[in-house]
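Example record

The entry below shows one chain as it appears in the dataset: sequence first, then structure tokens.
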Amino acid sequence: MAYTEKKTTGYGTRVGRSFKGILGGIILFIGGTVLLWWNEGRAVRTADMLEEAQKACVVMENPSKKDASLDGELTCGTAMATTEDSLVDKDFGIGANAISMKRDVEYYQWVEHENKKTEDKLGGKEEVTYVYTYDTQWVSSPVNSKDFHDPDYQGKNFTLTTIEPDQQWAENVTFGAYRLNESLIRSMTVSEPLELDLSNELLGQLNKTTREAYQRFNGKVDITENDSDLKYIHVNGNELYLGVNAAAPQVGDVRVTFEKVMPAKVTVVSVVDGDSFKPFKASNGERFEKLVTGKKSIDEIFDGEKSVNTILTWLFRLLGTLLVIGGLKAMFGFIEAILKVVPFLANIVGWGVGLVCTIVGIVWSLIVIAIAWLFYRPVLGITLLVIAGLLVWIFAFGGKNKIKELASKKKEDPTQA
């Protein structure tokens, strides 16, 4: 069942709120502008760094043997990343000889969903209808149901226990005759399930605490239950389930999954530093190193990084433009708010203000991007401006006729320079 609430805001409050929104709009506008400017600089610096790194990068033919001539060089090599380290989960006693071991935790909880509908009333009032619906789902952290709007669902959530997620990394990982540094080790993320082998003592202990929590919440106590039956604990592959029935979860149930990152063939692009590696530092100060799973060539690595840089550039451009437009709309939202006494008129004006803010926001964003290009790429930027100015002169100010006139004069007098 959906739960509905209605809230009415008076005309004066709405107008006052719209004027307060001007400050927020200014912040959004400035933030969007700064983001656009920063993004162009970031894109140029990253592109320059990648070009410099690609030219400097050499192939490490045989990572299984140290080569003193490669010391200080940016290299690209492929080898097995392996480790002798044994990782142990301190809470569950699970161990693995792996690059990394990870523990994820999920809770089965009631979750509140809000759907909002706004309606303008004659006289400038605003009526907002909130519709709240509820369902159960697995979430990464317990949900506080005391804050739910529907009294029937308040306090319905609980958890049989709380367990912190955790991840460990091996400290010593070899790459042929070399050692990977910490940042390269943490770049290995391809994982697989970690089969559980929990002691009977731990399982019995977990079952007891889970049973007590279950009975406290449900108000049922069965003194005949035996913890050795493990009614409240279930182990299946890499999953530890705390609850009565893993196939039919109940609110409060908890599931913990374990994964590991095993030794694998990887390609590393980094600067050789003795028997280890360090990031490449470009002349502009930008740093770079990369680890990918499998065998990759230098061109494949850098082509991928250039594509990522292009995608990020356009995403930040879009985000910055949206922030600028949103800021302008917030700054001039008071115009629509003042006219809310006549909703029909306010909607027409609001649509017009929104359209103007969108156009101005896009134009402003393009200007910021263009000026940033002039700043970060002056030669290219000026060249583009000269070409643009020439085209405008040719097609808009009679330059085309002037060129034809000069050409005809040259035909009449071939000796004219």
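Notes for this example: The first strand starts at residue 3 and ends at 9. DSSP finds eight helices and 19 strands in the chain.
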